[in-house]
Amino acid sequence: xxxxxxxxxxxxxxxxxxxxxxxxxxxxxxxxxxxxxxxxxxxxxxxxxxxxxxxxxxxxxxxxxxxxxxxxxxxxxxxxxxxxxxxxxxxxxxxxxxxxxxxxxxxxxxxxxxxxxxxxxxxxxxxxxxxxxxxxxxxxxxxxxxxxxxxxxxxxxxxxxxxxxxxxxxxxxxxxxxxxxxxxxxxxxxxxxxxxxxxxxxxxxxxxxxxxxxxxxxxxxxxxxxxxxxxxxxxxxxxxxxxxxxxxxxxxxxxxxxxxxxxxxxxxxxxxxxxxxxxxxxxxxxxxxxxxxxxxxxxxxxxxxxxxx
Length: 309
Ligand SMILES: CCCCCCCC(=O)CC(=O)SCCNC(=O)CCNC(=O)[C@H](O)C(C)(C)COP(=O)(O)OP(=O)(O)OC[C@H]1O[C@@H](n2cnc3c(N)ncnc32)[C@H](O)[C@@H]1OP(=O)(O)O
Ligand SMILES: NC(=O)C1=CN([C@@H]2O[C@H](COP(=O)(O)OP(=O)(O)OC[C@H]3O[C@@H](n4cnc5c(N)ncnc54)[C@H](O)[C@@H]3O)[C@@H](O)[C@H]2O)C=CC1
Fold this sequence. Notes:
Blueprint (H helix, E strand, L loop, with lengths): L23 E5 L3 H12 L3 E5 L3 H22 L4 H13 L1 E4 L2 H4 L5 E4 L5 H12 L7 E4 L6 H5 L8 E6 L8 E6 L5 H13 L3 E6 L6 H17 L5 H12 L5 H8 L1 H14 L10 H8 L16
Parallel strand pairs: 1-2, 1-4, 2-3, 4-5, 5-6, 7-8
Antiparallel strand pairs: 6-7
Bound molecules: 3-keto-decanoyl-COA (ZOZ) and 1,4-dihydronicotinamide adenine dinucleotide (NAI).
1,4-dihydronicotinamide adenine dinucleotide (NAI) binds next to α1 and α5.
Protein name: Hydroxyacyl-coenzyme A dehydrogenase, mitochondrial
Keywords: Acetylation, Differentiation, Fatty acid metabolism, Hydroxylation, Lipid metabolism, Mitochondrion, NAD, Oxidoreductase, Spermatogenesis, Transit peptide
Family: Belongs to the 3-hydroxyacyl-CoA dehydrogenase family.
């Protein structure tokens, strides 16, 4: 991965189809992000198939969606509980699940991937689905840090491949970064922008540069914070309070890293430090490595920098 090799022009290769109106969405990965995206897509009238490796994960994902829909409805339909219940039921009816991506992509306008942050695994997934999905189907990745170009290279639909980077928690965070590679067609890019709009999100256009806009700035901040703590320059608690009250951030950096998942932070750092071994900004942290090795991945496992049990 070459840092700072900006791709300044987007290709306008003719796509197999014109603008795709996205109605049927397959979301692969029913973790924090996939479930959140499924919730918002289903709430905005899309039919969604959520795919993961086993039924238990999918059951947990759907239960989580139901719980979070209740939170949404509490505010949105504060004085109309019946309308709120109807909203929840409609959204849930729009969600189905599967453990077999290959069998469901045939009906999809968009296949959006939110699985583990690993290039090879993402490439294998898309490479296989490319042979099964219809020609018009757009593929997109929610990757935090991997080049979309590299993920797309496992397919023969480079013009119908882009990035859709959502933020956690998806039902609350308003932004989507829409990423075009040099091969993404204008039609595909427009379809992804329109889809983001239909989800009620504000989108920004990004080039396929490492970390796009937000994570290119967020990761160095988080790593600098961890190094500050490792040097003993401040306690986790004080650093978190300082950034919340001093900068008005909703979460302190340690709370945020735990919320995102320390495995994801480490996956990103591994890739970026390997590509930039001499850049101190991307230097590894012993503490982060130790926590991940111990399975302390943050909120999702009950412990990370903080304990949640
Ligand atoms: C980190 C290193 C690098 C990362 C690289 C990988 C990551 C990425 O690729 C990109 C990312 O996503 S970066 C992370 C971006 N997210 C943030 O920065 C979140 C910051 N935190 C917050 O906004 C609030 O603490 C938050 C909204 C989370 C919670 O707010 P509060 O503390 O005020 O708690 P609540 O009162 O429970 O919630 C506020 C309102 O939001 C509703 N809500 C929360 N979670 C929800 C969910 N999952 N679904 C639906 N609604 C939800 C909650 O109901 C409440 O609503 P109101 O009562 O109406 O205000
Ligand atoms: N956690 C965050 O705040 C954000 C994460 N992302 C990105 O979204 C992606 C997912 O992240 P999370 O939802 O946090 O991870 P997660 O660990 O919560 O969920 C990943 C899910 O993918 C499933 N999975 C793994 N390999 C699979 C395969 N081959 N087929 C089907 N399912 C598979 C896992 O069983 C798991 O349920 C990553 O690429 C991450 O970088 C993007 C924005 C924010």
